[in-house]
Amino acid sequence: MNRIAGLAWVVAYLVIMLCFSAQAFGATGATSGKIAVIDMQRVMRQSHAGEAVVDMLNKKFEKLRQQLKKKQEELKAFKEDLEKKAPLLSQEARMDMERQYKKKLRDFKDESDDAQFEMRQAESRTMEPILKELEKLVTKIGKEKGYSLILENRMPGIYYVAPDVDITDEVIRAYDAMKQKQKGKK
């Protein structure tokens, strides 16, 4: 992942330098040197469609968390029971209970891993269509406003962003309006 982040930083740096050098040498055309940033996480949290998806995912997460918590409590109770009874049990009975405990522990870990995988899948399935719509919308805004480059605010290598180049609020408003218009057509 660090290689990808490093590569993304290098690409972003090269693109920025290209924009500025094109402007400095009097290049004409689409490269106006105008740059903006966007905070996609904030768009996802604050747009109406994003809020709905996040709420749905949180409910799903909470349900899975409650199921795992119940299993964890059962596992803890079994372990406490094993610890209490161990001195009184024969070696064979104690080993049998320990095997049962280890099996329950493995089952719990498997269920926990399955729940995490399920959440990642659900997040990916629900966020992907929104991110595709947002990508199109940001591209449209970029073309309409004459931006040469729009970067993700949380991208590696971005340490400071002047507030006047952040278009996140504009994208949220435009996305909400687009979704409202789509609802009206249905």
List the helices and strands and how they pair.
Elements: H1 2-24, E1 35-38, H2 40-46, H3 48-85, H4 91-145, E2 149-152, H5 168-185
Parallel strand pairs: 1-2
Description of the structure:
The protein has one domain (2-185). The protein is built from 5 helices and 2 strands; from the N terminus they run αβαααβα. It has helices at residues 2-24, 40-46, 48-85, 91-145, 168-185; strands at residues 35-38, 149-152. A two-stranded parallel sheet has the order 1-2. Helix 2 packs across helix 3 (48-85) and helix 2 (40-46) packs across helix 5.
Report on the biggest sheet: 2 strands, parallel
- Classify the secondary structure makeup into a structural class: mainly alpha
* Number of discrete helical segments: 5
CA-to-CA gap between the ends? 41 Å
Tally of individual domains: 1
What average pLDDT do the residues reach?
Answer: 84
What's the count of strands? 2
Radius of gyration: 26 Å
Percentage of residues in strands: under 5%
Based on CA inertia axes, which overall geometry fits?
A: elongated
Give the ordered list of helices and strands. Answer: HEHHHEH
Strand order of the largest sheet: 1-2
Are there runs of 5+ residues with pLDDT below 50, and where? 21-31
- Work out the helicity level: over 70%
